[in-house]
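Exercise 7.
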Amino acid sequence: MQDHHFVRMGDGERVFMSSGQIKEDLLSGTQDAAQRADILALTSGELEQLFDIFSDPSRIVSVSPGEEVIVTDDAVCTLFYLDQDNSGQGIPMSRVQSVLAYERACAADTVSIGHTDYSYKQVKPIINFEKHEYHSASLMTTAPLFYGSQPNMGLYFRPDGPYPNPADLLPMGKIREAQEAQEEAAEHLRKDMVFISKNLFEVGCEGINFDTSASAGDADFYATLQAVSRLKEEFPEMAVEVGMSSEFVLGMHGDIQFDGERLAGMYPHKQVKVVEAAGADIFGPAINVNSSESIPWNLARAATFVKATVEAARIPVHPNVGMGVCGVPVFEVPPIDAVTRAAKSLVQIGKADGL
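Solution. The predicted structure, written as tokens, is:
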């Protein structure tokens, strides 16, 4: 097929697009990001660079020697032993063994450990077990070892938690009641995250990853920022990474602020500033993928957001490059051709410090 290039849609479907179609989607994607967040679109030279990445016939692409970046992760080693229903390989091995395999066999820059449920609320009752597991892994690893989990404030609302559910209150017009429920849940969540982090620090925890932050909206994000601030005051040497759940902070509360800034409606280039103010060391923006659009459209959009975020940041920016974010298809096992193009584009064009 002359002048047709193999690319993918946002859901992972294999398609062929002409050079003109790819360039049209790249331009449309960057313009969408620029319009939504009031940031600069990619330049013509950057769009041409993106086109070269997509027109490369190789299945796997990469940056040039010297352009490599550090990779952090959200307990990716668990994929070795999780069952296939949870996107894992189902290998009969322990969590600590999977950490070691990831570090040594895959030459990981950093490694991480987390509970299978991956929510701070679920970790609290078993913190002594987690401390033991972390300590055991840390004695055998050389690479920096993070403990990761998700704030997941939704678990603090009924029927899973003690507080009234805003999803029930808001449709009834009980705005203030919904806000109060979120404020109470956010304080409970903050205490749990600080409690767990302090306990892990007692056994030499090298870093905490607050992953998928703001999944329940601006109050969820607020709780995370408060936890980071408290931890960095008490344990300034502990590394803290904050990874987001979405490009846009949902205003489930609407009025809540941190460091004088309203959190609702924030895009990544503003999210990074409040994360900095809280004292975090690494920021991970998450740019949503539209499964109905092509990966060139999605990746141009992601690179636009990441570039603006890096320019605004004073701390390292590690974009989330997983299923359904930052130009990676919404597919259980993301195809390597799309993943490597996303990685290369975000490093070379978005100027990401890591992934």
